[in-house]
Design a protein that fits this description.
The complex is a heterodimer of chains A (94) and B (318). Chain A has 94 residues and is an alpha+beta fold. Chain A contains 2 helices and 3 strands, in the order ββαβα. Chain A has a domain of 57 residues: Phenylacetic acid degradation B (Ubiquitin-like (UB roll), Roll). Chain A is 18% helix and 22% strand. In chain A, β1 and β2 form a beta hairpin. The model of chain B has no long low-confidence stretch (mean pLDDT 96). The longest helix of chain B has 29 residues. The chains are: A alpha+beta (94), B mainly alpha (318). At the A-B interface, β2 and α1 of A face α4, α7 and α13 of B. The structure holds fe (ii) ion (2 copies). One fe (ii) ion (FE2) binds next to α4 of chain B.
Chain lengths: 94, 318
């Protein structure tokens, strides 16, 4: 049995001024082929002006089971938000 | 994990879905949720892939360049749909290879509608109009399903489907406004595709398994019979515009219910086709398996070339 083509994650910028967004994944032998396939699979109707491909195995993801330790520390830091500060009404627009 | 802990996690999980939260691939999920989704998403993907075959049959013989370009683009979209769905399915921890194996060995099913032949050009019109029409009715509710990657794939699929149905209806319209022979060809295609299209929406509610669980997980939002009624109600007026007759003597508008009544579906035929005894089951499977096997040397060569290039890059770096 032969070796399977690796999996690639596809990110597309839909127009300049916007960020690349994850669109899905596909299989390809190498990065160049991944770009060509991504063009055909994900941008058949002008959905993009730029494509990034990243081999899936190179992505390190956080674990949702650890979301507590990961994201809760930000929850009690209300002083990071503008509404935490009391200013007199005379100060408009700040 | 103890049984009690799993039960607890399951309750939290079901509550999240009930609140309309999405489930993402790395989230904890019950094994049954994973398995059911692998089965449904992969069957859906297989249907898109096998679905290219009946229409591909007419690409070289389309009657004009306009029709040929449109059909080619439509069939290419179906390949795209298959690929979006396979990639959504793989996020559940199954490999593409396993999925192909299941299709090629006959273990996995695909929509039985694709086991009917496309014998005239009008069949291409009927498929776009009826088969894609029924597919849209099945797929639109899935844009809100609970599993994130499936829902996102369906949003993309649904955006592309409306062109498929319109190009099919336009083919029918052109034939119906043409010569008598052309109109007869359109009628003949409708006669052959009508009942299989109704079957596409699945067994009757009384016969259908898993519905309740699927409703909870938002894999289904309406019952098969409700979807079928919706399809009939929307399609009959379209046939009237074409001046074609739906091949069902019992079909008639019911003032009281506000829906069309329709005749008995031949479920025996449906189950025969599902079990592999349709007119084209063997032909479809062998076309697919041969395409895969005959392409093996190309895939191997591409992989060998990629590895060689990578090795050269490393050598140059030293
Ligand atoms: Fe499709
Ligand atoms: Fe389609």
């Amino acid at each position: 049995m032969s070796k399977n083509w690796p999996l690639w994650e596809i990110f597309v910028r839909s127009k300049n001024g916007l960020e690349h967004r994850h669109f899905g994944s596909l299989h390809a032998a190498d990065a160049e082929m991944a770009l060509e396939n991504a063009r055909d699979v994900y941008t058949r109707r002008n959905e993009g002006v730029s494509i990034w491909v990243v081999e899936s195995k190179n992505i390190t993801a956080s674990n949702p089971a650890e979301n507590g330790e990961m994201f809760e520390p930000a929850q009690d830091k209300v002083y990071r938000h503008p509404t935490f500060y009391d200013l007199p009404d005379e100060v408009k627009h700040m | 994990m103890s049984e009690k802990e799993v039960k607890n996690l399951e309750e939290i999980f079901e509550a999240r879905i009930a609140r309309d939260e999405k489930i993402e691939p790395k989230d904890w999920m019950p094994e049954k949720y994973r398995k059911t989704h692998i089965r449904q998403i992969s069957q859906h993907a297989h249907s898109e892939i096998i679905g290219m075959l009946p229409e591909g049959n007419w690409i070289t013989r389309a009657p004009s360049l306009r029709r040929k370009a449109a059909l080619l683009a439509k069939v290419q979209d179906e390949a795209g749909h298959g690929l979006y769905l396979y990639s959504a399915c793989e996020t559940l921890g199954v490999s593409r290879d396993e999925l192909y194996d299941q299709l090629h060995s006959g273990k996995a099913k695909y929509s039985s509608i694709f086991n009917y032949p496309t014998i005239t050009w009008a069949d291409i019109g009927a498929i776009g109009w009826l088969v894609d029409g029924a597919a849209i009715i099945n797929q639109v509710p899935l844009c809100n399903t609970s599993f994130g990657p499936y829902a996102r794939a369906m949003v993309r699929v649904c955006k592309e489907e409306s062109f498929h149905q319109r190009q099919g209806y336009e083919i029918m319209l052109t034939l119906c406004r043409g010569t008598q022979e052309q109109k007869a060809m359109a009628q003949d295609a409708l006669n052959r595709w009508w009942w299989p299209s109704l079957m596409m929406l699945g067994p009757t509610d009384a016969e259908s398994v898993h519905t309740e669980q699927s409703m909870k997980w938002k894999l289904k939002r309406k019952s098969n019979d409700d979807l079928r009624q919706q399809f009939i109600d929307q399609t009959v007026p379209q046939a009237d515009i074409l001046g074609l007759t739906i091949p069902d003597p019992d079909l008639k508008w019911n003032e009281e219910t506000g829906h069309y009544d329709f005749g008995e579906i031949d479920w025996e035929e449906f189950w025969q086709v599902v079990k592999g005894h349709g007119p084209c089951n063997k032909e479809r499977m062998s076309a697919r398996v041969n395409a895969w096997n005959n392409g093996e040397w190309v895939r191997d060569a591409a992989m060998a070339y990629a590895e060689k290039k990578e090795a050269n890059k490393l050598k140059e770096a030293i």
